[in-house]
Amino acid sequence: MSDEALHELAGRAGLTTVWHDVFGSEQHVAPATLRAVLAAIGLPGATEAECRDSIAVLDAEAAHPPRLATADRGAAVECAGAPGRFRVEFEQGGSVEGIAADAGFGRVRLPAIETPGAHRLLLGDAEIDLIVAPDTALPIAEAALRAHHERSGGTGPAAEATRLWGLAAQVYGLVRKGDGGVGDFEALAQLAESASRHGADAVAISPVHALFAAEPRHYGPYAPSSRIALNPVYAPVELSDVPLPPDGLIDWPEATRRRYAALRAEFAVRRNDPDFIAFLRDAPSALRRHAVFEAISLDRIARGEDRDWRRWPAELRDPDGDAVRRLAETLDDEVTFHLYAQFRAASGLAEAQRRARDAGMAIGLIADLAVGADPAGSDAWSRPNEVLRGLSVGAPPDEFNHKGQNWGVTAFSPRGLVASGFAAFRDLLGAAFGPAGGVRIDHAMGFARLWVVPNGAEASEGCYLRFPLNDMLRILAHDSRHHGGIVLAEDLGTVPAGFRDHLAARQILGMSILWFERRNGGFAPPRDWRRETAAMTSTHGLPTVAGWWRGTDIDWRERLGMSGEDNVARDAGRGALWQVFRDSGAVDAGAPQPPPEAGATVADAAARHLGTASGPLAILPVEDALALTEQPNLPGTIDTHPNWRRRVPGEASDILDAPDVAVRLAGLDKARRR
Q1: Is the distance from CB of 365 to CB of 356 less than 8 angstroms?
Q2: Euclidean distance between the first and final Cα of the chain, in Å?
Q3: How many Å apart are CA 602 and CA 476, to the nearest integer?
Q4: Which residues have C-beta within 8 Å of that of residue 261, sequence separation ≥ 6?
Q5: Tens digit of pLDDT for each residue in 601-619?
Q6: H, E, C per residue of 344-393
């Protein structure tokens, strides 16, 4: 058959049939890939007749008034519908009425709305949620000014708020007495209070999404069961000190067992606590569904059956079905326990944010929002029409991964988002912003497009799936203002043309990473990095400064047979890095280059160097604050490198007070305030 109808359907469904790789070469998606992806999103295209039928389905969906429409403040509102009278009921009270004009192609146009907010649009017989976005998300300077006014009661001059800095921390790796072998939100609060004493205004944290109570060996933070629920392992409980394992790494199964046992003991005596009863009363349906999922999963494990809901009996794969309702009633005590675990985690995270702000931080915690969730998890089970089925998210082949990447997670379905009024996305943002002063969006390019791979295919056999970027950015800007949180966006990798301009227009900060900021064969000084970014020395999946200088990452790759930079190239890189440290003033012009083993000296210079970045926020990973050589995660590995298991050496309450660390942070602080 001709591929004309297939390509028409693919284009209408948001699939990119032609794309350009990181080298600028044009790539064409194979018809077999298009058909597999289309089938996975419910739009069969195996024959020309199927393509035409699927196009008709899309036509019908496009003609139906949406459950949610978005617009920018001061701009006309457009959506599907018939011309006629409309009424907008404002979130803050009051309303406006008028005539919706015909905009062609089954759409109508309403006059501009000047008032941002989550309003209600009545259009004919349709009732539509209407989000009118503010001009921008909450800028850092405005967030800092708000914090000043809250602390001072609106009196006194506001401090300079355009060059803040913070730390980045892996919550699980923080240490405190009585933590039972894994970090938690109490350790996070202690770190935030300590960091504030040294001048920090933020702590960006690793994802704290819910994992699997039924499978504690599944501990990767970027493949959670639910991105809306929290990981109860991080709830602050008091445990007796346990000996450190011989390898010095977190024993996740044992630490999880200890913490769940402590929470169950608490639940037995505190289930009637008034605060918990209030939490139960107000718990959103998404959180209740997660608790039901956890209870059913553990019940099936106890019966020797499968925890993966995709292999459950058909009646249990329907979260709204009678069988699930009856089983949840039978397991009511267990369901209530998992809601208690969520209550304790949420209380602990909120308390960490309160203590960060009370200590003087302008921002406090910056939560990390993973790009997707495990397809065997709670989100995928509980929202079957809002997530992708039969597809995994990843990345196309590039200069670092010639075969591409398959991350093994699922994400939102663009059609599902629109059909549900972006319900899952709005729930997700509310959960992320609620207890934090900001949110980092992992792989933010997913707001525009995601590389999706059919199950069973190679990572290179995928294609890009387009998302409703403008709608998602408007909702994000609204929620940022509504919750009073800033937004960072991980915009690294193969970035769509114009995407960073969209972020900058909304005052959403991208990311500038030391290792990627190159110029003329060397490194670019931070004053030349993009101003509309948060500057960082490194991230969880890249070498630490001391580790890069020593070559620890090279040692790991050689040990595991992985490709990458060799020692010859690294030696030249050291010279280039030290030279840019001289250029930025981080070290004296005549300072001799340290040897590879002098990582602490280089970490000192890197902190000062980072402080000269032109953007409004600089973030130093705790690993670089402590001049550690090992990175939290080595991409491309699972069990051969101890990903997500390393603990920091020392207690969170005072680890930053060690003389060498305090001097390092003082250098960063001075550079930011210069």
Answers
A1: yes
A2: 67
A3: 38
A4: none
A5: 999 999 999 999 999 999 9
A6: HHHHHHHHHHHHHHHCCCCCEEEEEECCCECCCCHHHHHCCCCECCCEEE
Coil, helix or strand for 469?
helix
Q: At what angle do helices 4-13 and 31-40 cross, to 10 degrees?
A: 50
Residues contacting 220, CB < 8 A, separation 6+: 643, 644
The span from the CA of 618 to the CA of 625, in Å, is: 13
Whether pLDDT at 151 is above 90: no
Count of H helices and E strands in the chain? 21, 26
For residues 25 and 35, give the distance between their C-alpha atoms in angstroms, rounded to a whole number: 23
pLDDT digits (tens, 9 = 90+) for 387-427: 999 999 999 987 767 788 999 999 999 999 999 999 999 99
Q: Kindly report, residue by residue over 187-199, the tens digit of the pLDDT.
A: 999 999 999 999 9
One-letter amino acid identity for 228? I
pLDDT, position 118 = 98
Under 8 Å between Cβ of 34 and 15: yes
Residues 6+ apart with CB under 8 A from 473: 133, 447, 502, 506, 508
Nearest Cα residue to 621 out of 115, 168, 314? 168
Pairwise CA distance, residues 233 & 231, whole Å: 5
3-state secondary structure of 277: helix
Confidence of residue 161 (pLDDT cuts 50, 70, 90): low
